[in-house]
């Protein structure tokens, strides 16, 4: 099994999709070369794939940095960084940390909130106005400085609103008020 190693400095929000494929037993595969993001796709809400709006993602000092300082107002421009090679059998190892303050106009829940999107939708299939990829997120939450513990390592299932309306409302599966509702032979189950 390949084991993945990557270091990430998170300044506000990063949602990188990372997955791997089988290889030699216990061989480390470095996803980040420490120099550039040539092996990665960038997708930022309201922008085409590959457009690194506001220089959001940078390879600097041997780490990946995520910054929103050139944004002005945030305008829901959530950014995602995807490794270009899809994988399916993996261990993920990474380091992360949060620095900085909440970006102007960003939702309050995004403060020191990040994650890794697993089994994610290919970014090349995402429309410009899709805010989140269809994926499962392992969520990272940093402390808020108020002395209260904040749980981290939550698992979140991300499905864009348009997908829920157009793709899942097929009579067999639907999502209502964040609850998965399943219809089996006409009967509803929660």
Automatic annotation (TrEMBL):
Pfam families: 3keto-disac_hyd (PF06439). It comes from Flavobacterium limi. It comes from the Bacteria. InterPro entries: AL/BT2_dom. Residues 27-157 form the 3-keto-alpha-glucoside-1,2-lyase/3-keto-2-hydroxy-glucal hydratase domain. This is 3-keto-alpha-glucoside-1,2-lyase/3-keto-2-hydroxy-glucal hydratase domain-containing protein.
